Amino acid sequence: MCGGWVRRALAAGSGVLAGCTALAVAELVSVAVRPQASPVVAVGGAAIDRTPAAVKDWAIRHFGAHDKMVLQLGILVVLGIFALALGVFALRFRRTGAAGVLVFGVVGAVAATGRPDSTGPADALPSVVGAVLGAVVLAVLVGRLRSPARVSDAGDRPGQSAGSGGGWDRRGFVVAAGAAAVASAGAGVLGRALNAAGGQSAVASRAGVVLPAPVSTARPVPRGAQLRVPGISAFRTPNSSFYRVDTALVVPKVDATAWRLRIHGLGVRRPVTLTFADLLGRELIERDITLTCVSNEVGGPYVGNARWTGVRLAELLTECGVRAPSRGGPADQLVARSVDGMTIGSPVDDVMDGRDALLALGMNGEPLPFAHGFPVRMVVPGLYGFVSACKWLTDLELTTFDAYDPYWVKRGWARRAPIKTESRIDTPKPFARPRAGTVMVAGVAWAQRRGIDKVEVRIDDGPWQQARLAAEDTRDTWRQWSLPWQASRGGHTLTVRATDRTGRTQTEKRAPTIPDGASGWHSVVVTVD
Ligand SMILES: Nc1nc2c(c(=O)[nH]1)N[C@H]1C(S)=C(S)[C@@H](COP(=O)(O)O)O[C@H]1N2
Ligand SMILES: [Mo]
After folding, report:
1. Which of 391, 394, 395, 396 should be mutated for ligand 1, with most atoms under 8 A from CB?
2. Among 411, 438, 455, where does a domain finish?
3. Residue 222 domain flag
4. 152 exposure class (CB count in 10 Å sphere: 0-12, 13-18, 19+)
5. Are 384 and 516 contained in the same domain?
């Protein structure tokens, strides 16, 4: 009896080892194809694209920057469970079990070739080659578990090998399993290392970028824009802590020297293809702009303020012969495409209305970090990122809102999404226990394009008290505020609301992030000791 259990456990382990072999080999083969073609990345990407907006939003909220790691871990856990089962199954049905590994190869291959950034059938190779070798490993290992022990096997004690399952080739199994484990670990480590090194030309191209001085510098941030209150968000968000929201499981590493941007489409009288050097050679401007994600909950972290350096998008479009629809042009939507197949649509009228819509090359004084879109991304003041801020940009197409729905719109988000007037309490933090006495309540408020005119704070059900506003940098940047509060002992709820320069006060009405951004007032509950 005992022998049967041992064999079944070893068979399950063989399934896992076969799975590991498949993934490791796929990783190695993906070095020759593209890192994005490796099956876990491809299946993960396909899963992201098919995840309902609400779930995706939930994942972003709950796992934040770790959402992608959680997804990949989830895929591995599911694969692991199937691999265990497949191993046990192969003990009875060796061929069918081994063939089962191939099914996963097909799933990976279909996912990889179906990605929007797929470069062709070669993307199937990592999954296919990996699965074939995985199937071989499973067939060989299970074969050892099924074949009768040879008499010469010195290690085989009669008492164990004569179990109900009969004898099996212990030494053969151990040797084969050891070889498979060592080989797949080697392939996996080598594949990972080579893929990591593969982005070297992109890294070198970024290191070689020298951003020319802008012809129009950002106006100096007024000294009073940054309040000296512990716990308040820095006025300028450093790149290292700038939020990141995108669908890329592997950050695209684009070699700037090979990068091209095509501008074409409806009503583009002079289509062009530009190089990175072409953009560097143009007049650059520098602007402080606060970027906001539509997935940001009231009080959430997906908002940041950076100094962007780039080319005026409207100027470039005008040179290409584009006219805004308000001036009779036929195209009302500008669709930006990234190297990873993301599509983001912005109103042509917005990017050409005189605001500082940029093809950004620089962020806070350095070339864009890879995670934030190197070499070139869009930044449009006043529009949520999903309708304006395409990273790893490679194509700009003029079209209409009627003719084309970009990525997020296909998934239930709005076609047009100006940023809503919002405010956030940065300090005290939720459930903080400040001492009774003067407590500084402080935070940020934003209403890009309109500007912040007033911020008010309410303690419990008390009257609205006007907060002190920090100096305004521009209408397109967030604004800090603070209010000294004479805190009395006990539990208190602090609530904030902002009023923008159009005179509109931030609505109390709660709206979910889908389809066009959350609304409502941010509250923080604290206990004063
Ligand atoms: N290529 C690409 N660009 C993208 C996205 C993406 O998923 N892929 N996400 C957009 C969204 S939803 C936002 S809010 C901003 C975030 O920019 P950041 O990651 O630099 O903060 O990028 C936008 N640009
Ligand atoms: Mo976003």
Report:
1. 391
2. 411
3. no
4. exposed
5. no
